[in-house]
Inverse folding.
């Protein structure tokens, strides 16, 4: 099982910044906040008719193994305690993401060489922080982890019926590999991006990324 180890802070210098937010490996103490964030995101998706995630979010049994494996990350800090207006926000992380070497066998074929990639799961940003570049920055960081591990691709899957999200991934440098249409899976649109962050399709200066990120 892939377990992440953080590089020195210099390795994140190209990611822009996120105010006083900190990216760190999640612990069991984070479980309630992560579940609440995933439930908020799932509710928002389902409210728009997108059925990729269960309407009520995920049970703890689906998230605890990611924490135990050390592959779930949370973005938190002073900025996560307040909204754009400086008003108090909800407790819990501003964003979360899992990154591991698990290639879903229903989606990724042997001919895709699954071992050459790391895979993003459960990426979610609290709605109060939507549009501030958190998702892009987490994906940039993940691409650096792919490169640091000597792998080639950063991969993910998303809803077959969510063209807006598919367009978002395309705009930030991901290439559509194919769409796998399984009747029992809402997801199935497969995307990948080269590990080299310089291959990113969107100039970094054009992104709306706030001011500093620290990892620990």
């Amino acid at each position: 099982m892939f377990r992440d180890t953080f590089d020195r802070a210099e390795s994140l210098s190209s990611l822009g910044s996120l105010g006083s937010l900190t990216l760190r490996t999640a612990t069991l103490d984070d479980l309630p906040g992560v579940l609440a964030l995933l439930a908020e995101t799932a509710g928002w998706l389902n409210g728009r008719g997108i059925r990729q995630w269960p309407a009520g979010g995920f049970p703890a049994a689906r998230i605890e193994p990611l924490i135990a494996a050390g592959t779930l990350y949370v973005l938190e800090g002073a900025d996560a305690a307040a909204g754009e207006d400086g008003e108090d926000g909800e407790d819990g992380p501003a964003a979360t993401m899992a990154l591991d070497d698990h290639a879903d066998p229903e989606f990724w074929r042997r001919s895709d060489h699954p071992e050459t990639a790391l895979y993003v799961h459960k990426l979610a940003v609290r709605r109060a922080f939507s549009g501030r570049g958190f998702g892009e920055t987490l994906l940039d960081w993940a691409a650096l982890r792919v490169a640091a591990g000597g792998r080639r691709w950063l991969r993910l899957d998303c809803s077959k019926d969510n063209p807006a999200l598919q367009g978002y991934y395309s705009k930030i440098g991901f290439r559509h590999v194919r769409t796998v249409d399984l009747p029992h899976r809402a997801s199935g649109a497969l995307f990948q991006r080269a590990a080299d962050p310089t291959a990113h399709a969107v100039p970094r200066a054009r992104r709306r990324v706030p001011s500093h990120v620290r990892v620990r």
Residues 132 and 208 are 6 Å apart (CA to CA). Residues 1-17, 81-89, 201-212 have pLDDT under 50 and may be disordered. The helical segments are 31-47, 60-69, 134-148, 163-171. The first strand starts at residue 21 and ends at 25.
